[in-house]
Amino acid sequence: MKKFNKSWSFAMASLLVAVPVLGACTDGPERSDKERRTLRIGMVYGSKDNESYVRQQMTDMFEVDHGNIDVEFVYGIDYNDMRFATDEERKNQNVDPHAKLKELMEGDNPPDVVMTDIVSMKKLSSENLLKPLDDYIKRDKVNLDDFLPAVIDTLKAQGDGQIYGLSPTFSSTALFYNKKVVCRCQDRAAYRRHDLERGVRARAVPEERQG
Predict the structure, then answer these.
(1) Segment (H or E) for 148
(2) Domain range for residue 197?
């Protein structure tokens, strides 16, 4: 990753599940804070025509605060490449999104960070394509207590104990059920998935067929 000013490098990382790309890391000299430079952010899907929302949500204010830095988005799969394709051609396309993102990251001009989901982050880190943030977190004294503990724990688990990306937002899924209906023992809940599935299957069988 090109050496940008340390005061904003983590601010950008926290906007994405943002992961520094190992191929973009160099050990060059520190660059002046006033020097014009470009921060390249890689995404799996997108195009120049529809990136305005992402910029509004994630980078516009950053560019206002850092007038010498231009943010450029690059894509593994560019929607513009399919602009003139027929419906049949789109249907028959067999594109591997992960392979396209890897191709972008291993190219001659890789992005500095990539915006990705947590599953892809684990794959990319296992393929040695990402740079862990732990040393930077210690160096810049980033307070991980500012992040939701469950999110940090999940990021560490996906990185085998290391942190490869930070995220300010997350989504979760919960399942609510009536334990008196699903569970045979009314004094306990089905804490394990297979207990819940077994209870649901049992309730789905008509009473005359239950032994």
Answers:
(1) none
(2) 179-209
